[in-house]
Task: structure prediction
Amino acid sequence: MIRLFIKDDRAIAPHITPKYRDMYYVYLLQSEKTEKFYIGFTADLKRRISEHNTGQVSSTKAHTPYKLVYFEGFRSKQDALTREKKLKHHGQGIRRLKERLKNSVLY
Result:
């Protein structure tokens, strides 16, 4: 897993070498308007967050703007998709993640 640094809601990876460029991310967004959460998967975190915040994603456009609350990076696309599915479809997974992030989410 590669750590990315968050600055002004943008993911920045200053020391990524070419062998780490093919990364996949599972992310948690929270609507600043309604405080609803959204879990997603992408290979380009910065672009995907921009798409959410500009209303280009039909499932989230009614709740913009979004703030990036959490993300995980994976070298394996399959591992990232498995993690996203676990968070989306198993209530215990997202509940535990919210508990870990209790000081980072809007309430």
The radius of gyration is 14 Å. The CA atoms of residues 23 and 75 lie 5 Å apart. The first strand starts at residue 5 and ends at 7. The mean pLDDT is 85.
